[in-house]
Amino acid sequence: MKLLHNPRCSKSREALAALEEAGHTPEIWRYLDEPLSEAQIRELLGQLNLPALALVRSKEELWRELSAGKTLDEETIIHLLAIHPKLIERPILIHNGKAAIGRPLDKIFQLIK
Q1: Which one, of 74, 106, 102, lies nearest residue 10 by Cα?
Q2: C or N terminus of the chain, fewer CB within 10 Å?
Q3: CA distance 41 to 85
Q4: Does the keyword Metal-binding apply (predicted)?
């Protein structure tokens, strides 16, 4: 069990606390300090069963700047996520070859049932 975690994010802290309260000790991946490669992002998207755009924090000012007036394909979005990890939605739990974005938090608990 691995949690992509940003300790400055309240939702990410909430997810970690809820997992620990439920008796789980996830491996913490501080993805802002140790960014995902493009290959890791592709693997994560497969585990999430989502397109790259679903992984983007679309309200981030940086995303609005990078995507303004453009139609971006999967590979371009993956590349942008790799070089700008703060654009990756959080928290994300990876468990047994699958993953879930913890928004709402219930999604990560559905994954570990």
Answers
A1: 102
A2: C
A3: 10
A4: no
The active-site residue, picked from 9, 18, 50, 112, is 9
DSSP 43: H
Residue 106 has pLDDT above 90, yes or no: yes
Strands 2-4 and 27-29: parallel
Euclidean distance between CA atoms 3 and 14, whole angstroms: 12
Q: Tell me if residue 9 is catalytic.
A: yes
Q: Which two tokens stand for residue 92?
A: 């994300």
| DSSP label at residue 85 | G
Q: Is 11 helix (H, G, I), strand (E, B) or coil?
A: helix
C-alpha atoms less than 13 angstroms from C-alpha of 80 in its C-beta half-sphere:
21
Identify the CATH class of 2-112. alpha beta
